[in-house]
Amino acid sequence: MSFRFAYPWLLLGLLVLVAVYGAYLWRRREAALPYPAAGELFAMAGGGSRLLARLPLVLRIALLVTLALAAARPQLYSASRDIVSPGVDIVLVLDASGSMRALDFKLKGQNVPRLKVVQNVVSDFIERRPNDRIGLVVFGDEAYTLAPLTLDKGMLLNQVDSLQVGMAGDRTAIGTAIAVGAKRLKNLNAKEKIMILLTDGESNTGATLPLEAAQAAASLGIKIYTVGIGSNGPVPFPVNSFFGPTVEYFDVGFDEPGLRQIAATTGGHYYLASDTRQLERIYRAIDRAQPSPARVKEFFHFDELYRWFLLLAFTLFAGELLLKTSRGVAP
Predict the structure, then answer these.
(1) 253 and 211 co-located in one domain
(2) Which of 309, 312, 316 is nearest to 73 (CA)?
(3) Terminal Cα distance for the chain, rounded
(4) Residue 21, domain extent
(5) In this predicted model, what pLDDT tens digit does every residue of 204-217 receive, in sequence order?
(6) pLDDT at residue 180, rounded to an integer
(7) Would you say residue 49 has pLDDT above 60?
(8) What is the pLDDT of residue 230?
């Protein structure tokens, strides 16, 4: 476990303000009694009276420092930790190639890019699988892991929200994507290892052929559900023309037989997803998979500590208030 502040620059700024305010109050109190016989009064009152008079100010400054610490969100965190939890091991493999800009899907009655619909559907899927370990792979020309297998659904949802068309290139390397997803699953001792491949095109780049990658995944006990997004035929795309943004129609290749073959090779299923209801069929299929315990890594685990600092601040405030009311000490 390590310690950090989530907002260190905010902490620095607040501490500077507290220091300036504290210095102002301290100097003001030094000049608060311009009386020629102040030394004699101090001797009569005893040295402890001056310390007692300044104690509320010390408590107030400590209170402000504690509030600044709380505002900066102190955290204990670990980059990873071993956990054991029942569930299904799932890797979501998402296409973010250029064809995902197509505007043939709708959300709330509005035409939106395909990737936006995928983000909404996948986010809903993640939220509905609280006990499953889920990983995230994105692909285009290349494929890479956005999130390893984890139970940290907040981190996964943030990664899904960050998806952008073309972030991994504009072409479609399905074979490479399957290979990367299989690497995330191969070392887990789970009875059910599942990959859900979402794509809207056909494989047109990459050193690994999709069917060869599927055969390798099958040898590792990985079941692949393939989901085709959209359909064949001309589809609308946003285009920046001389007269400004417009929409034009283009043909997008769609390898439905290839997706069927990938799924069949691994014992999975193929679905054509033209709307959210189609994807719900995948949820039901995954729900039928038997959960199995496995030891995995949970990444970026944080424990928030600001509550303890707020409790300390309240204690300091109560101490200052009690001291001023019971001893008659001026603020």
Answers:
(1) yes
(2) 309
(3) 41
(4) 2-77+302-327
(5) 898 899 999 999 99
(6) 95
(7) no
(8) 78
CA distance 78 to 82: 11
CA distance 57 to 63: 10
Q: What's the pLDDT tens digit per position in 58-106?
A: 888 888 888 888 888 888 876 666 666 556 789 999 999 998 998 888 8
268 phi and psi, to 5 degrees?
A: -95, -155
User: Following DSSP, what letter does each residue of 34-103 receive, concatenated?
Assistant: --TTHHHHHHHH-HHHHHHHHHHHHHHHHHHHHHHHHHT-EEEEEEEEEEEE-S-EEEEEEE-SGGGG--
Other CB atoms within 10 Å distance of the CB of residue 116: 18
CB under 8 Å to 40, separation ≥6 — which residues?
Answer: none
**Closest alpha carbon to 297 in 154, 2, 89:** 89
pLDDT confidence of 183, banded at 50, 70, 90? very high
At 79, list the tokens.
Answer: 């980059």
Q: Could you tell me how many residues make up the chain? A: 331
String of DSSP letters for 246-281:
EEEEEE----HHHHHHHHHHHT--EEEESSHHHHHH
Q: Are residues 214 and 314 in the same domain?
A: no
Count of the separate structural domains present in the chain: 2
